[in-house]
Amino acid sequence: MKCRKCDAKAIINMRQHKLALCKDHYPQWMLEQTQRFIEKYRMFSLQERVLVAVSGGKDSLSLWDILWQLGYQADGLYIGLGIDGGIGYSDESHHLAEKFAAGRGLRLRVVDVLETYGETIPEMAERTTRGKGRPCAVCGLTKRHVMNRVARDEGYDVLVTGHNLDDEAAVLFANTLNWAPGYLMRQGPVLEARQGMARKAKPLCRFYEREMVAYALVRGIEYIYDECPHALGSKTIYYKEILNKLESDRPGAKLSFYLSFLKAKEDGLFTRPQQGDGETGASGEALHTCPTCGQPTSAPGECAFCRLAIRIS
Ligand code: Q46
Ligand code: ZN
Ligand code: ZN
Question: Structure pTM?
Fold first, then answer.
């Protein structure tokens, strides 16, 4: 198959866009599309300071690469979770993130959870679930807390993550199965800044996972291939498999599921219940401020993270 824009061999065929592109035109198209989404959803401007949450995986490193090429002021944030899983997962992902930043002269901020809070994520999970649960709940809570803290303390205007369309469609699917109105209301390409928290944006939310893999490969980005060992058997992976089946029968199904949701939201399908003047949390409840860390929390008193973490400093 030939590239739509020149005679060279296409490296990717995007059936949902009826578009095949070569190794030169594909990355260029990704840059143009990302810029278009940044503007369309009013994510951030060239004058704003952007913090990219970097895991060492293909999505976050590709996102950082795209923003760097587009001329945004984007620093990276790597959070050392202390996950080994027999493959040295955290060490390897940290090494790749450092290498990526050094190769482009970019600034990578690093927060090591063990150094900062005295325990790795698996240790925190072991203590709090007595070895019974997955570390993902503790991990998600910690990552959100650290990202918000660094964005606020270091004066970033926006925090961006590398969630792609497959991630967003799987989350949407889960939230729809549960009819979780608070989460549905907050899902989207941008979440505005609120009560001491930076704006959040997902510039890759309209790109398929396979498009992200192709971008990383064509740009020669070295990323960690292995998933976090704790992701195995997760519900998200199960939902992704279901959506992949749907997509293979109906190319474009995932994109249309996500875009139709955004359109329905825009048309007012989900409206916020009256809550007075205050901010509300994921389930529509009023927000309070944690007296220890100053981040918003849904109940009065310390937030879930401060209740979880042992403080060593
Ligand atoms: S890193 Fe953390 Fe994920 Fe690993 S422990 Fe679970 S939440 S699976 S995105
Ligand atoms: Zn071409
Ligand atoms: Zn707190």
Answer: 0.94
